[in-house]
Structures are given as C-alpha cells and as structure tokens.
Amino acid sequence: MSDTPIPASANALQEQAPASRRRPRSAVSAGVGIVGLIGLLGYLLIARHAPDIAAFLGVDWGDRGPMSGPNSAIVSVLACGVPMVLWSLFVDKVHRNPSTGIDWNQRRPWRDTLDISLTKLAGLWATWLLLAGFYATMRYYWEGSYAFSMDLLERVVPWLLLVSVPYTLWLDRRMVEPRDGCYQFGRWMIAPGQPVDGRAIAHHFRAWAVKGFFTAFMLSIVPGNFAALVTVGWSDVLANPYMTGIWAINILYLVDVHIATVGYILTMKPLDSHIRTANPYFMGWVAALVCYPPFILMNGGPLDYQVNGADWGYWLQGHDTLMALWAALLFALVAVYAWATMAFGIRFSNLTHRGVITHGPYAFTRHPAYVSKNLSWWVGSLPFLVTAGGPIEAVRNTVLLGLVSGVYYWRAKTEEKHLLADPAYQAYWNWAQANALVPRLFAKLTGRARPLIRLEPDPRVGPVA
Prior knowledge:
Blueprint: E1 12-15, H1 30-48, H2 50-57, H3 70-90, H4 110-137, H5 146-172, H6 181-190, H7 198-231, H8 234-237, H9 241-265, E2 277-278, H10 282-289, H11 312-316, H12 320-344, E3 352-353, H13 368-381, H14 390-419, H15 423-435, H16 437-446, E4 452-455
Antiparallel strand pairs: 1-4, 2-3
C-alpha cells in the first residue's frame, strides 16, 4: 500500500545512481485483462436479458427469469477466462516465454520421462488428498456460501484426476527440468530414504496452500456477486444517485472477483502463469490471512470499524448532487482497484510471485489495489460519523479503520520482502521509486530521498522459476 522507501536490511546495498527512466516490461499485456472484461460483461448482458433473447429467437423460456443461478455464475467465469487464455496464447504467445521452463522443440521418448511423470502424479494426487482432508475436517467449508464451492469441487475432481494423467505425461516430455516440487514430494513418498530437494517440496506445499485456500474462497463468492447484478431491476438502479453508485461499484467488484477467480484456477506452466515462488515468510501469511474468512479481523471481528456507523448514502441522503459526486469519487477509487486486478490477467494471486506487473495502475504506484481499496473504505464508511455511541464510538471506529489500513501497509511490506528476491522486481521497484507518480509525490511532500536498492537472494525464497 505504501510507496515509502523500505529500510535497508543487513544484506541490502543502497545505491544512489539514478534508475532508468524506461519502465521495465510487464509480464502481462494490457490486452489480456481487456478481453476478459469484454467476455464477462458480454455474458452478464446475456444472463440479464435471457428471457428477451429467448423470445427474440422463438425459444420457449417458460416463466424462468434471468440466468442468475450458481451454474450460470460459473459460466460467467468461463466467459471471462477463455478470452484471456486465447489472447495469451495467440496474441502474446506466452507459451513461448523462456520462463515457462518448456522447450517445445524437445520431445523426449515416453520411456525417458514415464517414471518421472508417475512419481509426479503420485505427489499431485497426494497433495489433492491432503487438501480434500483439510476441507472435510473444517466444518466451515460446508456451511453458507462455501457449500457451493465444495459441491463444485466434488463434481470437478474426478475430471481433474482423469485429465492430469495425459497432461502430466505430455508436459514432462517437453519440460527443461520436470523434477519439480511435485515430483520431489512424490519421490519422498514412494522412495523413502532417497535424497530429495526439501526446499522444492516446501515451495510445492506453499503454492498449493495458496491455491487451495483462495480458490475455495473465490468460488464461494462468485454466485452471490453475480446474481445480485443479474437480477436487480433498472428501476432500482436508477432510483437515486446512491443506488446507481452502488450498482456501478458492484460491477467493478464483479470484474475483480471474476478475474481473480480465473487467476487462481489457471496456475499452469504452458500459460506461463505458474507460481514462481510462494511467500516463505510466516508474517506474510499472517498479514494476508487476517483479511479473509475465517481468520478475518474486520466485518464483525476485533477490527470492525462500522459499529453504530452508516455508509455515505445515509449521511448524504437528501443531497442528490453531493451524493452523485460522492458516488463518482467512490467509483473512481474502486475502478483503480478493479483495474489493478485486470492488470494481472490470468496471473492474479495473493502470496505468490507469478511475474512482475508494471503496466496499468502499477505504472503510478507499486500497490494501487491497496491504496485505492483503503481510500474507498475511508470515503465510503466515513468512520468518524456514527448513529449512536457519541464521540467515543466515532473515535473508536476511526482508529480501527486506521489499524485496518495499517494491516494493508504490513501486507505490502511482506509482499515486497518476498518479491525483492527477484532481480526483475528489484528493477521495477527502483524504477517506480524514481519515476512513478505516487512515490515521487510522497518524496516531494516529505523531502525524503528515494534510495535505490539491491538485495542479495534470500535462500528461503529459492530460485525464481
């Protein structure tokens, strides 16, 4: 969230030489997010107006309304994801990137990689079994919106097991080094006592912990987010500036949720969207997980800053012009947040490094999502105004929202500590520190210098794939 210079650690070398004014190349093109947005909004219109479309085509739609069910919501994820995959493959040709670890000109004989593939499949299926055991043990995953996630995963898993066999056999023949963390874990299980790469196994488990935790969460919120926008009537949307603003902001959150969901699903080497490294720092995981259920500290937790509060619509009612301006400001802030997610394309994920993003809002600040999200909370909740409890409650809510913003500052720092192990991120960090709008503005306001950095690799992070 912050663009202040990070303190130099013991192994950091401060450099005062000016950074290049040329922005480092982004790992993802802007086109990926744009085609995903078009696909999503196109399907949203189809789902909203399904009865009208059916009538135009002469199809008997009966008394069914818009396609707002959970299965339709999953189709909307596909409508968002498929265009992004096609753009990545046929326009950006990401499968040709050296960072995939794939040599497409190499086709080893099946017999040369069969043992590797079978070992890797053992490791992969055992990992899935561990995830299934975690889901089954935690009752939380079988209640409320998470029940849909579990039902969907139960239906998908047999197909994943089936497809994983030819996919692994096919890919290992072309991998430059197929003995990855999944293979190392499989080898540890089926050949006890044989040497394995423990660091690769640790990376494998961290990566799948991220994917398992956040994929289930994203799938749980997709249906409700989608249905609310499909079913709301235009008369309600246009009732007043507040309702129009809420509807427009929810569209932006729909974009964020769908593109993020696609990102968690498509961690694949042929798309160059695999996880290079997962955050190895315990405090990085703590900082991230306290922002998500069931560990969330906000929204009913100890950092709930909305007790006896009301949002901007309550305080501005009766002042339509001011309300419209306030809605426009909130829309702009949330738009930056959604734009930041769009910039990742199919690579969005918490707690992981999947390529350095430098375009879009990342050309202005290193943490546009955190900055815009937190500003939108301050503008939208107005924590210093309360309906009961007096000044003490107002001060309490203001302090608590300040602590929430502090959590996101903490998240930003733990993420940078992880990413700075990659020279590509160091180059972006230095460029942003010297050239991006927000850090330059901060430096001008504070009069602080903008030192550049070079960090020695941290062995806990491991090599970046």
